[in-house]
Amino acid sequence: MQYLLRNRYGASLDVTGQFGPTTEDRVLAFQKSVCLGETGVVGRYTWNALVARRSFCTGNTQGGAAQRLLDHNTAGRIELWNQTFGKFDGADPLSNIRDTAAGKAAKTSCYGTAPCTTVRLATGLVNGMAALREQYGYSYFVTAISGASHSATSYHYAGRAVDFGTINGVVVSGDSTLSRNFMQACRNLGAIEVLGPSNDPNHQDHVHCAW
What we know:
CATH architecture of the largest domain: 2-Layer Sandwich
Distance between the termini: 38 Å
Structural class: alpha+beta
Radius of gyration: 18 Å
Number of helices: 7
């Protein structure tokens, strides 16, 4: 990685094999230059960009935010569930964000009230998820985006809603200052529907934010 940064991208950097502060600074600069977001973590997408000379500066802020979410997930800053409540149907949050980062529509599930189709995730949704981490510093566990079974008219099936089951390592279970503050952060980021333990009896174990 240091060799590529120095010899392919002209970074002022010694090849030492040690990931120190100077290397992290050069990684941050590289990520900014290719519009991956500045995490300082060389996840899969940062590595692929280094090797393949790939840039994500296409004007697609949705795709860029999705890439950053994947890097945050790889780094353990957030967790995107890789299943839909025991089902591995490709409609899980991790697959939804991977598909969005690749410029593809996300899948919905095919059980319960789910419509068994695909949908483009809303830009506001993806940007809002990224901002909850990058602007507000929250870590969180996402249980559903466009997958799983919800009410038939749910914003989930329009690619506009996300459910959070854990916030900063704390499982959502009843009203708390943490969940209320998180809900307010969603509103501050433009969410048009915010449901949780403090305002909806059907959302006692998760926070739902829709853009």
